[in-house]
Amino acid sequence: MNIDLKTRKKQLLDRLRSQGITDEKVLEVMADIPREDFIADYLRPQAYENAALPIESEQTISQPYIVAYMTQELKVEKNHKVLEIGTGSGYQSIVLAKLCKRLFTIERHMPLHKGAEEMFKKFRLFNITTLFGNGIKGWKEQAPFDRIMVTAAGEDIPDDLLYQLKDGGIMIIPVGGQDETQHIVRVTRHGDEFDVKTLLPVKFVPLLSGIVHSS
Ligand code: SAH
């Protein structure tokens, strides 16, 4: 990494700390992952700006603060089985995979699904299982999960995902339409009851049904 990116990465991590990211494990894994490798070459100078950036298939890699915040709120532990909906670039997947036991991640765009698989190989992450499919339905064969993270905004919280959470499990999901204010929501399962807490206002790409074979 050139000296400039190294300095910017350090500044970004300091900024995340000052913005209330206190979980050192989350900061440590983010310090470890080269975000510049998950974006196009022309965007490299912007890799450590606290901003979402475009990736293939008209999607985005989330803003570093949002990655840190959602991961911190998910309270991932080393023995957890985690489901992620919206693999995208694979950046958030690697953050999660470094904190949990096994990560299952679903993407509906084939080029992104393939690209992320390459990244998981490159970074030698062997505890990630990928699926090309519609994550709104979750992953029945692998359920239940200790934690679920959705990285695209749904108009509602999908029922299938709620019921694939373990008792006591937590899901973090942005909720809201594209023309309204979306919020990150934290759902905690207590038996058949779901405790829903609204957290930060955010702007995410939509959670959509169906699959897309090409870019
Ligand atoms: N976590 C990603 C963010 C990608 S943006 C990253 O770090 O890069 C959100 C992603 O969710 C997009 O790639 C989009 O294609 C995907 N997505 C949207 N709806 C989906 C669905 N129903 N199932 C699986 N993936 C979905």
Structure description:
- The chain has 215 residues and is α/β, with parallel strands linked by helices.
- It has one domain: 3-Layer(aba) Sandwich (Rossmann fold).
- The chain is 28% helix and 26% strand.
- It has helices spanning 3-18, 24-32, 64-74, 91-97, 110-122, 159-163; strands spanning 53-54, 60-61, 81-85, 102-107, 128-132, 145-150, 165-175, 182-190, 193-202.
- A seven-stranded mixed β-sheet has the order 5-4-3-6-7-8-9. A two-stranded antiparallel ribbon has the order 1-2.
- It starts with a helix and ends in a 13-residue tail after the last strand.
- S-adenosyl-L-homocysteine is lined by residues 55, 59-62, 85-86, 88-89, 91-92, 106-109, 112, 134-136, 151-152, 205, 207-209.
pLDDT averaged residue by residue: 97
Total domain modules: 1
Helical stretch tally: 6
Number of strands: 9
For this structure, the CATH topology is Rossmann fold
Q: What structural class do helix, strand and pairing data support?
A: alpha/beta
Low-pLDDT parts are none
Indicate the percent of residues in helices: 25-40%
Which CATH top level class fits? Alpha Beta
Shape-level CATH architecture: 3-Layer(aba) Sandwich
Strand order of the largest sheet: 5-4-3-6-7-8-9
**Shape call:** globular
What percent of residues are in strands? 25-35%
CATH superfamily: Vaccinia Virus protein VP39
Q: Terminal Cα separation, in Å?
A: 30 Å
* C-alpha Rg (nearest Å): 16 Å
Main sheet, how many strands, which sense, barrel?
Answer: 7 strands, mixed
Give helix and strand order, one letter per element, not per position. HHEEHEHEHEEHEEE
What bound compounds does this protein have?
Answer: S-adenosyl-L-homocysteine
